[in-house]
Design goal:
The chain is 35% helix and 7% strand. It has helices spanning 9-16, 64-68, 76-82, 85-98, 105-108; strands spanning 27-28, 35-36, 47-48, 51-52. It starts with 8 loop residues before the first helix and ends with a helix.
Length: 110
């Protein structure tokens, strides 16, 4: 059996002295009335110590179509429209050869 090292109460208290959590200090802005960190720009007004530093943050209103559309996202209809006529003929021949299924031949057990 190994000898365990001594674990004194002073060592335990020194380690636990950093466990205390402190709350974040915030100040209330005079003009907007919103909470902000001290010595930081107020995001709603864009001011610091009464001077305009940057343009105020404005929340952009989006329509439902803009909200749910993703850049670079295409639907199945637009993907088919992008194929050229040669590719469409090639796909039709391939589907006729497969029997109209999109399952590869190796997966069907043939």
């Amino acid at each position: 059996m190994t000898v365990r090292m001594r674990h004194t109460t002073s060592h335990t208290h020194n380690r636990r002295s950093h466990h205390a959590l402190s709350s974040v200090n915030t100040t209330v802005d005079e003009k907007s009335g919103k909470a902000r960190l001290p010595h930081h720009i107020d995001e709603t007004t864009g001011e610091y110590r009464g001077k305009l530093i940057k343009a105020p943050r404005v929340k952009k209103e989006r329509t439902k179509a803009e909200k749910y559309s993703h850049p670079g996202h295409t639907t199945a209809d637009t993907k088919h429209a992008e194929h050229s006529d040669e590719q469409n003929l090639k796909l039709k021949k391939q589907n006729a050869h497969d029997g109209g299924t999109s399952i590869p031949l190796t997966r069907r057990g043939v």
